[in-house]
Design brief:
mainly beta, 1 helix, 10 strands, single chain, Kelch-typ_b-propeller, five-stranded antiparallel sheet, three-stranded antiparallel sheet, 5% helix
Length: 104
Amino acid sequence: MSTENLQTMPGGRVDHDMVSVRQFLVICGGYDCMSGAVCDDLLIYNTISCVWKRYQPPIELEKIVRYDKICAFDNKVYICGIEHPLEIVHHIKSLVSFDVTNSK
């Protein structure tokens, strides 16, 4: 998974999900409010070192993060993609896990 350190807080992302794991805030999904582009990356903020990192996953996550749900257990973040949020019954299309402490 490729990573990029960011100097400032990323802006312009709306309709995203967020969860905390230990000292990390993890932001996933949403879209850019100016361009409308889907955000298919993970943003992780370390609340101790005050550093933002952007992770570009090696797999295509556009279908996951467009209608995503996120939760955390232990050091892992789990992201599942559903078909559409307006459906009465949500069908999970995909499930991805990410270990925040070692970036895997």
